[in-house]
Amino acid sequence: MSSTIERTLILLKPDALQRGIAGEIITRFERVGLKIVGIKMVSPSKEHYHTHYETISKMITRRGQKAFDVTLDFMMIGPVIAVVLEGVEAVGEVRKMVGATEPKEAMPGTVRGDYAHISFSHADVVNSGIPNLIHASGDSDEAKQEVAHWFSEDELFNYDHAYETLIRGA
Fold it and tell me: Is it the case that residue 1 has pLDDT exceeding 60?
């Protein structure tokens, strides 16, 4: 992979699956030319999520123990679909497409802006994790750690994408 070709992780959270919009969300990433190189439905343990949200992304440090606890409880309500996407500057492209973490702040045209509207304050009132449909790696270093945490090397694939030459210019 060239230095501008990156891999990043998205998780379609339990609310995306329960609402039946997982395929629609994945299609958005395919339509911009990102290539799926790994995908699976899983029901991770709290320990797996702890590594994901605290060891890798430092959620307790950034947002506090309560936010961490309600997020873990929310993620445990059902399975998730873990996807590794590959493409030119994929981490930034995916973050742009996903939109702001707080759905009410997400711009129309983003995944969260089009499919969610809940605010942090509402989630706090009902003592719940925020149903914002999707997780996306925050930066390139986080993406590398998350991909390795969720996928083994033999679960990731290299193959020719039908439009790779057009999309990547290579």
Answer: no
Q: What's the one-letter identity of residue 89?
A: E
Per-residue pLDDT tens digits for 130-143: 899 999 999 999 99
Residue 170 scores a pLDDT above 70: no
Total Cβ atoms within 10 A of residue 34: 26
Tell me which residues are annotated as active site: 135
110-131: pLDDT as tens digits: 999 999 998 888 888 888 888 9
Domain for residue 58, yes or no?
yes
Helices (H), the chain: 14-18, 22-31, 46-50, 59-63, 65-75, 90-98, 111-115, 120-125, 140-150, 164-168
User: Domain range spanning residue 52?
Assistant: 5-98+134-151
Residue 43: HSE in the Cβ half-sphere, 13 Å Cα cutoff? 5
pLDDT at position 2 is: 62
Any idea what the CATH number is for the domain that residue 78 is in? 3.30.70.141
User: Can you tell me which residue has the tokens 């994929």?
Assistant: 90
Of 8, 14, 74, residue with least CA distance to 41: 14
| Of residues 2, 8, 36, the one with CA closest to residue 94 | 8
Output the pLDDT for position 166.
74
